[in-house]
Protein 1
Amino acid sequence: MSIAGKISVVLQHNAEVEIRSSRPLQLTASLRGFAAAEIIQRVPALYALCGRAQALAAHRALQAAGALAPSDRQSGERAAAVEAVLEGIWRFAIDLPQWAGVSLSMAPFARLRHALLQDESEASGELLNQYLTTQLLGEAPAQWASADGEAMLHWLYHSDAPAAGLLREVEAVLLGVGGAAAAVTTPLLACPSDEQLCEIAHAMKTDSYLAAPQWRGACVETGARAYQQDHSWFANDSVMALPQALQRLLARLLELVSLVRHLTGNGVALPVSGGLPLSDGDGVGWVRTARGVLLHYAAAERDRVSDYRILAPTEWNFHPKGVLARAVSPWNTVPPSMRQRWLALQVMSLDPCVAYELEVYDA
């Protein structure tokens, strides 16, 4: 089995849903006893995805714990933001087209990715703007994101842009299953406040919390829909009437545009990371990633790390009783021929950082 583990979505014959994770959440125990500088080197190597975000979160947590000297975080934040952009584009350039059975050339994305990894300066922002315009949105990203909800819906239903066509296919599947995946109200966790950081970091010291985290007794959703919750689209009744998985994918496009504008200095300054000292010798750091808020907790004694813990977005979004479990609970109303595609959309909209598998027991 891969060291990354996997998410298993088990659909029981009595319509119950089980979400199981084999992610090795105790992996960070191997980091105890190392010096802070060694932790910085080891943490990104433990994870296949979001290595730059993991490195930045480690810096912020260890600095907050007093185990690492303060440093300029600008380059680390820029690298993490570029990484989040590439992860976000991957969903629309690779994953959604494959799900929809659409043949799109991967060459433009491959060229963009190569260029960004070679040059993360502000000049690369123009490449991103050009890519979003020509390969996804069909119009200037800032103009697209500043439109009101009704204009966005017109784009969704009438534009020839690749992203609009993919999202129309998404909606057709979501609406074609007889009303399954009814809307559920779940608290949203965006960039955390100091109060949230303090409470969550304290809870992270417990192993069971890392496997099934909650905020004040409630399951939460993190990611683009949380980051973009204050956008005017999500105060529009017609937009809010869209299936929630579709809303999340629209929010992912908004987040892409916001990150690109942040990287180019085009009027948007996003919070990308933060840290909070908790007491003498421990602290917590967070990073805004494509999948949601990534949290690291560190405790240090003398020049060694005595405890280290990581809480990834997947644990929030794929909580056994969380947003995915509730969204797919009416799975037995979905025609058997559509279940795989329907479930794939629900999972893709929340985007786990590991592979997932589906088990169905319908008799």
Note: The mean pLDDT is 89.
Protein 2
Amino acid sequence: MNQKTKTVKMKTVNCATLTLLKLLTLMLMFFQFSYFSISVANSESIVDSESVIDSESIVDSESIVDSENSDLDLTSKFETFYNLDFSSNIKLLHDEFVKYRIVMVPGLLADLAKPVNQGNFDIQARWLSQVLSLKEGTDFIIAKTNTFASIEVNSQILRKIILESRKQVILIGHSKGGLDVLETLIAWPEVRSKIKGVVTVQSPLKGTPIADMISKNFFLRQLLWTISTLGRGSLQLITDLKTTNRAKYINNNESEINQVINSIPIVNLVGWIHQEPSRKFLNEKFSWQRLKKQTSFYSKFIYLFTPVLLKLGIYDNDYLVPKYAQKIDGAYFVNVENLDHISLVMDSIHNRRDKVKSVFALVLSMLQLQS
């Protein structure tokens, strides 16, 4: 066996080993959270302000988003673009999108999905490549951020991508990817002049109680440490999402955030599923009946977090992030009901919305703000 063959074989073994490790990690997480979900559902004390969240009170999730300035609500505009016949308007869409470099930023732990499912934004990238005949790497890119790493680390990666672009850049961030984008604009003011606009998709801009819970739970914290270490990241990835840390972040960077919002059009997509505040919903048998109906592995996985949010009275959520947390004050927003956290970027039980049309209807809504 020559050296070249040995090298190829070793790479294949390493790749297979890493894939198996990722799959094993996902299985461990799935069964652990299955147990944890049931424990939460049947406990009166496991979810409280001492053990789960650091904040003294929960924001009224039912009213905070809808009570915002109606001038910032782009929902009707979004629906107009969403209902556009994309197939009959390919030329117009091509002529519009080809002007910019579209950078899609994946969310937390998105790399773990690749061995068993498609990655974040794969569907949108395929559409851009095949239908619009755009060339990946020049006209669009799924940013190779480290989905196991902190927003600080990923902001440096995005800064490089932006500054190297010959075109104006459109940034699309899903989940924590939206936080990576915001940090880039705040930490590196020199990139702002190159940004055409920003779209965030269900990003925990104000944090999530799920991150608070994980940070307090020894087993889950150690498990996440193992995962993040394998991915060359750190536990800072979950610390960045804690509700108190996001509140401090927004407060400490209030001036910079306002400058970004006033100089760059930003649209936050707020997605949620309304869940009835019923004790029956938290019943173990009922929860498992619901899980059996879930066809997507990741929909099953993220559904297991919902008891944490429901025990806190947060009935409008996408299984991971409260509705109220997905919008930053002063930014434009779009409200879309019946979306779980992965509906627009991966295979999900909640697939009523076309993933391609949803994301690019957001982009078109953002672009029209400047016309």
Note: Confidence is low (pLDDT under 50) at residues 37-67, 279-286.
Protein 3
Amino acid sequence: MFDTSIFERSRNRMHCNILEANCEKYLKKSKDVFDLTFLDPPFNQGKDYASHFDEMPESEYWKWMTRICKLVYDHTSDGGAIYFMQREKNVEHVLEGLRKSGWTFQNLIIWKKKTSAVPCENKFGLHFQIIAFATKGKSPRVFNKLRIDIPLLVTEKYPRPNGVYVTDVWDDIRELTSGYFAGDEALRLKNGERLHKQQSPIHLLARIILSSTKVGDSVFDPFAGTGTTLVVGKQLERNTIGTELDSANYQAILGRLAGLRESDRITKYRKYYVFTENLNEIWPAPEAIIRRLHDYQEQTQPLDVG
């Protein structure tokens, strides 16, 4: 059996926990309440997963996704948010699933990849994924208007003195491709192959968490994968919990949380958001984070899951 109220038992201290568990079973038993959920499930496109069959009948797959969305909704604080990432071709299914499970649509974010487009035979090449942002209720309980310091365009003569607001088109975050350009951030096996070919970049999760939470809020990732949500949430001083079925991924997450890799440090992106008005409130200064890092170490131990 697993503890059904992890957040409740740790009310007075920050925590970061990963469960080796089925997210649906966990949500049905848990009493935890989340302020933000990042939902990045398997896309049902025939990928080779050790603990999941990725070629479900389409109708069954979307019934499953709708059940997950409803369970997350029931565990979400009033005004809390969900960011549901999917393939561009599944926009209608995503919005329908969110609507049926009670969520209020806010934005359809276009994450335009900085890598090469996927060529198509009889239509335009594919160059983006979608992230549906929705809330429990009409208005978000938290929405921080981030401002970024983007490079000067060739058509511009003078830099913007206060940067620009982040919009619903995110074309400044590079995905971790399966080839050379994945860089040091991608987790790799001893033979050099990627542990997980769909690993989310830390910058993506940093933007989502900064936008829709404040320090001390609770963040959930039902398909934790390689643990990027937890790694970023921990550095931003959010309470985080994830569920992951794959044993290899689970062990990798434990290791990633126990010792922060240089490539996982999000401080390199802080200057990019320097024009955000309340930045010091939502992203504690690095020296403040360092003073509290030791408080997290004991909170990344595996939990008993039945």
Note: Residues 58-74 form the longest helix (17 residues).
